[in-house]
Structures are given as structure tokens and as C-alpha cells.
Design goal:
The chain is α/β, with parallel strands linked by helices. The chain has 7 helices and 11 strands. The protein is globular, with a radius of gyration of 17 Å.
Length: about 280
């Protein structure tokens, strides 16, 4: 369809962003809530991988490893350290930074492949859920990972338990992969939430995804719902390029109507598998 996500800004709250060749001149903003360094960097690689799935041009691989929306603008906000760990306060500071600059940078989407899991902070009144809800209420499309704590019920991580945001699970977690150094299978977070909300909202592939690495001229393979989430964010960037007047609620409705039932339980697949072709009709 000739859509590349051009003119759509996507903010990624993660471990930062290495200025890989596949990002061309499309890194339109960077903030570091962890080390407070001025220029883009990524001492972990997770954030760069996610940015590549959303908007890598694939130039270095002759188009083989192109992202979903290779023309979108990328805004990276570093809220996690080199091990991928972080504090809710830094995530919330990152959301505030984005809200202050969303109009100036043309940010329409926030991708959050970050989550916490534990008894503390699992309610909809937690600071993280209130933070993502605030971004949603400001008109941004907020796309959040379901986390890798499945297959039991009620294993969706915070802030993916928010009923407002779009929560993404992994459609192919039946294949054994290495996630965070551990062999995992059937790991995608399952609902419902403690408030009996059906989650995730939809699923997308997340198994052995090739994307940009945080060193020059390299790609890396990673797996998990962290990889499924930017596939959905990138698809939404294409949708917003085609239909720029859609609200975040319109986007959620279009995802619901176009996702394909793949026969899994509702609290595993939500509305079903992302179908980009049907979404963009």
C-alpha cells in the first residue's frame, strides 16, 4: 500500500537506542532517565531491538530485516538499566517527558515492552497503571507487553493490566525459546486481571525475531512478548499514516474488528492474531 509510518512519531520506553544504520535520520528524540546522558545509546540492546521491529529501514540487510513502519519517527526514552531492570519512578518520569513533548515531536504511539510482576503494584490503582492511563487520556495510543510469566491465569504484568491500553501477548509461545537467558515455553502472560478484565487484547508473533543490535552493522535474535508488542505498535503507525484522524479508541476498535481468531482461549489470545492487511483496509 506504500505505507511506511511516515509522519508518525513512536516513543519507546525501554533501555535506550543505539543509533544503528537502519534508523537513518529518524531518531527524532531521546531522553535518559537512568544515566542522564544527552545522546542516544543503549547499554543493553533490548530497546534498540524493539525500535528496529517498529521502524528499522532494513538498509543494512538489503531490506531483509525491515521493521513494520520503516518511515516512522523514533523517540527513545531510556528508563531501564543495562540489565533491563528499572524503577517505576523512571518509567513515570519517561511518560511525563513524552506528554510534555508529544505535540512538538508528533508522538502518536507509546510502546512499553516493560512490566513488573508481583503482589505489590498489581492493582489498577498502581502508579504504573495510573501513568499509562494518563498517557491514554492525553490521546496517545499506548501499547504494552503482556509479560513472560505465563501460562497460569492472572499472569499479565503491570501496566498491561490497565483496561485502557492495548495489551499484546505472543501468538507463537508454543515454541521453546531463550527469554532473558532462560529456556521458556508457553510464557505469554494470560488473563484475566484481578479486576476480571480479559487480557491480553490481541497477540502477535514474538518467537526468534531478528532486529537491530546495539553495535554497528549487527542484528540480533530475541523472543518474548517484548517483541510481539512493537509489531503491533508498528502496524498502528501504518494505520495512523493512512488515517491520521483516528483516535486511540478508534485504533483499539479497528484492532478488535480486524484481529483473527486462532482458536486459543480468550484470556490467551484476546481478540486474536494481529492481521495487518485487514487492519489497514
Amino acid at each position: 500500500m506504500g505505507l511506511t509510518g511516515k509522519g508518525v512519531g513512536v516513543a519507546v520506553l525501554d533501555t535506550g537506542l543505539f543509533p544503528h544504520q537502519d534508523f537513518d535520520n529518524r531518531i527524532i528524540g531521546f531522553a535518559d532517565m537512568v544515566g542522564h546522558r544527552p545522546g542516544p545509546y543503549d547499554d543493553c540492546g533490548h530497546g534498540t531491538h524493539i525500535c528496529g521491529i517498529i521502524g528499522g529501514s532494513g538498509m543494512l540487510s538489503d531490506g531483509r530485516y525491515q521493521g513494520m513502519a520503516p518511515g516512522c519517527g523514533l523517540v527513545a526514552v531510556k528508563v531501564l538499566d543495562q540489565k533491563g531492570n528499572g524503577y517505576a519512578a523512571d518509567v513515570l518520569a519517561g511518560i511525563e517527558w513524552i506528554l510534555e513533548r508529544k505535540d512538538a515531536l508528533g508522538i502518536r504511539i507509546i510502546n512499553i515492552s516493560v512490566g513488573s510482576y508481583g503482589k505489590k503494584g498489581m492493582s489498577e490503582n498502581s502508579a504504573l497503571v495510573r501513568g499509562v492511563n494518563r498517557a491514554w487520556d492525553a490521546g496517545l495510543v499506548v501499547v504494552v507487553a503482556a509479560g513472560n510469566n505465563g501460562p497460569r491465569r492472572m499472569t499479565v504484568t503491570t501496566p498491561g493490566i490497565s483496561r485502557k491500553v492495548i495489551t499484546v501477548g505472543c501468538s507463537d509461545d508454543d515454541m521453546e525459546v531463550i527469554v532473558g537467558g532462560n529456556r521458556m515455553i508457553d510464557y505469554s502472560g494470560r488473563g484475566p486481571t484481578a479486576a476480571c478484565i480479559c487480557k491480553p487484547d490481541l497477540v502477535a508473533p514474538g518467537c526468534s525475531v531478528v532486529s537491530c543490535a546495539s553495535r554497528p552493522g549487527s542484528y540480533a535474535i530475541k523472543s518474548g512478548t517484548s517483541m510481539s508488542t512493537p509489531i503491533v505498535s508498528g502496524a498502528i503507525a501504518l494505520l495512523l499514516e493512512k488515517y491520521p484522524d483516528l483516535t486511540n479508541r478508534d485504533v483499539k476498535l479497528k484492532l478488535m474488528e480486524s484481529s483473527r481468531d486462532i482458536g486459543l482461549p480468550k484470556n490467551q489470545q484476546g481478540w486474536g492474531l494481529l492481521d495487518v492487511e485487514r487492519l489497514l483496509l
